[in-house]
UniProtKB/TrEMBL annotation:
Gene3D superfamilies from the UniProt entry: Homeodomain-like, RNA polymerase sigma-54 factor, core-binding domain
Keywords: DNA-binding, DNA-directed RNA polymerase, Nucleotidyltransferase, Sigma factor, Transcription, Transcription regulation, Transferase
Cellular component terms per the entry's GO annotation: DNA-directed RNA polymerase complex
PANTHER family registered for this protein in UniProt: RNA POLYMERASE SIGMA-54 FACTOR (PTHR32248:SF4)
Family: Belongs to the sigma-54 factor family.
Keyword flag Nucleotidyltransferase: yes
Domain RNA polymerase sigma factor 54 DNA-binding: start-end pairs: 319-478
One Pfam family hit: Sigma54_AID
GO annotation (BP), single: DNA-templated transcription initiation
Record-linked InterPro entries: RNA_pol_sigma_54 (IPR000394), RNA_pol_sigma_54_core-bd (IPR007046), RNA_pol_sigma_54_DNA-bd (IPR007634), RpoN_core-bd_sf (IPR038709)
One of the record's GO molecular function terms: nucleotidyltransferase activity
Domain RNA polymerase sigma factor 54 core-binding: from-to ranges: 119-306
Protein name: RNA polymerase, sigma 54 subunit, RpoN
Length: 480
């Protein structure tokens, strides 16, 4: 068969992800803080976009359609006046149909700034472990050489305050002897916090016993030889070995509990992670109202100066301005669509999980993305994106939207209960248990069978308990 060139027509359909569509999808899955950064970045890059004192995004979108030619936007003075009126619209109408509360419910009292107090006076920096130790080194009578060795030692500390290098390695870096390093190390270990720069938990606790003058040989033996037995609560064999009673052993344990096994923990450099809710759910009379959080969100509008100068631009400048115009309008429409989708998803979750908003976590029902997607006639991927890194403030606390989607466990009557409800009940049972007779995983499964009529295996209880960060019954047991 010979090879030949041939032309033929072929009709096909394919989905093309335009840059505008990619931007709209990206905005859906951004958290609130990431969205603020994205909007601020667009404000800096797009000259046709500006932040106004008050505007109505819904009216801006209705006044400016993306597919409408830009040349027709400023035909005459009437349209310019209409556009100005649009820009000066009241921003509190922005929520519109996306708020189930009235304007009176949406108004919140603004914070009154403190008079006579500067902004810098309200800020404080958390001291670091390294800075605290360097300060003590400078106050000590160390020589310059010893200060250099001390700085190397402090630089080799872990966040918990433990030394991560050997004396030989530090001596090689400081060009000194290991004996000199050990001498300086012993002095640093008696700095505040006591026990810092120790190499093992035993060394850390023994240094604290020396400083606090606890010289009891049994106490020192418990630290140096039997920390693992104490961790696993092997109290009776220890009492027999040291020929003491359990009450005497309890007194030793009380002394050990006053010591700090992680001396650097109070100087941790990790900062707390603050969550800004994307929406609030309040109960008003017998109904729940949803209010989207618009605090700090820039009020976007088109720059009137650039809009009015479009007619006097040359072809290349006009093409550039039209492109920025389309980008600005598309961003405002995407933000409008994001808020609309978020409200619809929240409203659907509120209908499905009304018992949770009324009673709490124990009444959380099984829910999957497909249920919400079918309810609001959207695709599951859209619901997944809009619930990622989004938080809602409820009467029972702040929760991520993903929290409301949980698997189901079958009940004896054929109905189902949410896994998060079972976890909450397990946590409650363990908090109410006797410390001397803690509940085993098998016993918890039996109680759940009796109370909820839920079919749950012991290994499932163990999995939920581990997810809650709760130890096993053997480690929760207290003999005193």
């Amino acid at each position: 068969m010979g090879l030949e060139l041939r032309q033929q027509l072929k009709l096909s359909q394919q989905l093309v992800m335009t840059p505008q569509l990619q931007q709209a999808i990206k905005l859906l899955q951004l958290s609130r803080l990431e969205l603020l950064d994205t909007v601020q970045q667009e404000l800096m890059e797009n000259p046709l976009l500006e932040e106004g004192q008050a505007s109505d995004l819904g009216n801006e979108i209705q006044a400016l359609e993306v597919h409408e030619p830009v040349q027709e936007i400023s035909k005459d003075r009437d349209e310019i006046l209409t556009r100005e009126l649009t820009r000066n619209a009241d921003w509190e109408d922005y929520l519109g149909e996306f708020s189930s509360s009235g304007k009176q419910m949406q108004m919140r009292e603004s914070e009154v700034p403190e008079d006579g107090v500067s902004f810098e006076a309200r800020l404080s920096s958390k001291p670091s472990l390294e800075g605290h130790l360097f300060w003590q080194v400078r106050l000590s009578d160390f020589s310059e050489k010893q200060k250099q060795v001390s700085e190397i030692i402090i630089g080799c500390l872990s966040p918990a305050g433990y030394l991560q290098s050997t004396a030989e390695e530090i001596a090689a870096m400081a060009h000194t002897t290991p004996e000199e390093v050990e001498a300086i190390l012993r002095r640093i270990q008696r700095f505040d916090p006591v026990g810092v720069a120790a190499r093992t938990p035993q060394e850390c606790l023994l240094v604290q016993l020396d400083v606090y003058e606890h010289n009891d040989p049994i106490l020192r033996a418990l630290v140096s030889e039997h920390l693992e037995d104490l961790e696993k609560r092997r109290y009776k064999p220890l009492a027999r070995k040291f020929k003491i009673t359990l009450d005497q052993l309890k007194e030793y344990l009380e002394v050990l509990q006053t010591l700090e096994p992680l001396p650097g923990a109070s100087y941790s450099s990790t900062e707390p992670y603050y969550v800004s809710p994307d929406a609030y759910v309040y109960k008003f009379n017998d109904e729940f109202v949803i209010m989207l959080n618009e605090e700090g969100m820039p009020k976007l509008q088109l720059n009137s100066m650039y809009m009015d100068s479009l007619q006097g631009c040359n072809s290349s400048d006009k093409e550039y301005m039209q492109e920025k115009m389309r980008s600005a309008v598309w961003l405002m429409k995407s933000l409008y669509q994001r808020q609309r989708t978020l409200y619809k998803v929240l409203d659907s979750i509120l209908r499905f999980q009304r018992d949770f908003f009324e009673e709490g976590v124990t009444h959380l029902k099984p829910l999957i993305l497909k249920d919400v997607a079918d309810d609001i006639s959207m695709h599951e991927s859209t619901v997944s994106r809009i619930t990622t890194n989004k938080y809602v403030a409820t009467p029972h606390g702040v929760f991520e939207l993903k929290f409301f989607f949980n698997s189901a466990l079958d009940l004896d009557d054929g109905s189902q209960v949410g896994s998060e409800s079972v976890k909450a009940l397990i946590k409650q049972l363990i908090s109410d248990e006797s410390s001397k007779r803690p509940l085993s995983d098998e016993r918890i499964a039996e109680i759940l069978k009796e109370k909820l009529q839920v079919n749950i295996a012991r290994r499932t209880v163990a999995k939920y308990r581990s997810a809650l960060g709760i130890e096993s019954s053997s480690k929760r047991k207290q003999i005193f």
